[in-house]
Amino acid sequence: MASNPVHGLPFLPGMSFKDSTKTAFHRCQTLGYRNGYAVVQRPTLGIGGDRLQVTQLSQAELDDLASKAPLLTYGQPKQAPPAEFIPAHVAFDKKVLKFDAYFQEDVPMSTEEHYRIRQVKIYYYLEDDSMSVIEPVVENSGIPQGKLIKRQRLAKNDRGDHYHWKDLNRGIDITIYGKTFRVVDCDRFTQVFLESQGIELNPPEKMALDPYTELRKQPLRKYVTPSDFDQLKQFLTFDKQVLRFYAIWDDTDSMFGECRTYIIHYYLMDDTVEIREVHERNNGRDPFPLLMNRQRVPKVLVKNAKNFPQCVLEISDQEVLEWYTAKDFLVGKSLTILGRTFFIYDCDPFTRQYYKEKFGISDLPRIDVSKKEPAPVKQESPIPEDKDRRFVFSYFLATDMISIFEPPVRNSGIIGGKYLGRTKVIKPYSSVENPVYYSPSDFFIGAVIEVFGHRFVILDTDDYVLKYMESNAAQYSPEALLSVQNHVRKREGPAPELENKQTEVDPGVQELEVLIDTIQKQLKDPPCKDNIREAFQIYDKEASGYVDKEMFFKVCDSLNLPVDDSLIKELIRMCSHGEDKIDYYNFVRAFSN
Hints:
single chain, PH-domain like, 4 domains, six-stranded antiparallel sheet, 14 helices, EF-hand-dom_pair, cell projection, cytoplasm, alpha-tubulin binding, cytoskeleton
């Protein structure tokens, strides 16, 4: 067999030549028979027995070509960014499909209706494919309405499939828990959503109406009531219409009486009156809602009805000449109900509109019944025990601050100690914008110092005050300087008649003085009194004369004071103030000669 002269040439334009040596041009059969039936066979060879192009490559080469990615001219292709994943509860949050539907319910035991139509709303929540059925509440329907089917995934068939939004459309019937609902329409959002998803919506239908409900809308009566007054007409006309008045009951003239606020309701449907109490938080009263139950209130009784046992029998028209009506309740008018006189000072807008339309009264006033607080009474220290109280004033020249200390007095009933910490004190009658503070020139014998509403009279001073006033005489008036000088002279040299005068001494103070005198006599080598006082004053920042008990014993240990001695223990007990403080002034006196 001669070799093919064109074998091996590339299959390019101009390189394809007809093989002149080829003599077979038959085609491979594509039909055959198997088990007596004609079947189609895929050709395995081409014309003349040549191999087909698809069979010229092995299976491995075909797999390689299938998985081979094309390369660009300038390198590897860039991968496209992955699509952003948004979960369903985020993408469809608060997106709800709403359908209008109804279902028919049989009424077997009724002569007025054989079936009823109940209109419902079907909600489909896209975030979790759940559904709920809500029936709008109709007033006086007598049927439990509201949420008929709570939100859940609803079964569509017995195979476990659930309803999807693709199954919902207008003009279809869906069965949920044995009830067939007819879907008649949907809202605008639902229509746009379904059409955007390629669903063709059916034309909307009219909502079916309940025959019995339409029958009840017809007028109840087509005749005129023969009587002059029709209570049923009044009930139907003024049902749920109530006049509201705001009133007070002023009982301040009686013992322990007070002015209390009430709300009076007048029901137009049956001319009854109800009185409610207005409670405030922490008013100390039991929270009873009603002062008077709803009832008709008589205005004028017959002559013989005063002895009528009202506590056990109800008053009828035979005992009453006139009842209270709406025209008796006017703003600014007082009326007596069950022995209490109520003054009406205001009403609500509905009541004002009713009086304007019914009685032509359009200028009902609003009366201010709030009591003005009396002017504050200036306190003049009415407590008699304050006359015998003594205080120690300390004026700090560096900061112009004042501190007040009250020495404790046993069995006085008043806890002594720090009365006022260091602070600047404003003079009385000074303005807030330009405050004037107390200065050293305001302190002298007989001066009255008012500190936050409390008045103090200066009775005595120490020697340093006199030295300071004499060295700074320009700051003080001659009368103030002379008052201090005379007081110091009297204190240093008392009159003979005052020396022999016997004064009463507190037994506790006398016992303390005896104990201090005994300790001074027994101490052979007492430590320096000034050193002890200075050690305690370091920890007494307020100059109150007291230190904490823990700090007191630390100072005693540092100074090697004999606190274990029985007399010293008794002195510490008598100088103790409460459980945490100790008066170190009297304690230091025991260590002087």
